[in-house]
């Protein structure tokens, strides 16, 4: 293939999430003709809060979108751990609680998605309700409706359960960390004002928070469980969750009851994607599809933004043939550093036994009364900051 330059290449990006949209922006910036295909019928708003950290801040700044992202910050002020009666055992400022340093920005996933999409709308073509059903090694994509189109490059940016990855690489690559995550909107019956409360039971964590500009609240449940038995379908998932948290105290029953009314339930295993290669023929993967670090890492959004930037940059300088390998070479160490956070963090977020919960509560209670507790807690944040800055752009 003589045409290896990105300049007038036809690129299909499968997935209109953070990685796919950011990639479309950068590819268009380098002169490519980009189409973004998204299986969902419409963009998804709302979503959980996500962090832009370290190198990812540089990417957003270079897109000229940092001020906009900052203006949409969640504004969460404090984080507290509560016991079964609702007593606040320990409270700290939200940045310390969320592992943020310096100018890291926390905003809702839907808000970040929207600013990226608005910035990219006049540079790339977005096709919602469009699914890639088959891929040929030469870059020919067959869509669910039967239409076929040939591209110079196809990029899978379609998340943990990437269909593009399965089509090009076969099944596999997903490694479960033995836990589940569930998130949904709930009425703010506790009257929280930009505050996050976390309840910890043995093998079961539940938290609820409110952000600036939202009248309701978000609940998040993290729990240990047999991931081989992953329930499919809404009804089965609700039942599974309700059984897992049966008998737990605090506001857990109320939060679970609100799940039935929520139209935004997200439920999945906490997993990582580990692959030997991120490209094959004319197909390359970016973001969670290639190297999901799991929600426990807190670095999925940053990996998506940095990965998009690096991939587009290497395609622009090294061309379509050598670019994917160069991208992989540059990103691998950064990905490895960030994936390490996942298993380590989940152990801190979900405690195994009653004894561990008791011990942890006692320690938090003591820590809460210590002068300079913020400084002590900052030590916990250090590995996250190190991983977030482990690449030079």
TrEMBL record:
Superkingdom field: Bacteria
Domain annotation FAD-binding: ranges: 9-323
InterPro entries assigned to the protein according to its UniProt record, in alphabetical order: FAD-bd (IPR002938), FAD/NAD-bd_sf (IPR036188), FAD_aromatic-hydroxylase (IPR051704)
Record protein name field: FAD-dependent oxidoreductase
Source organism (scientific name): Asanoa siamensis
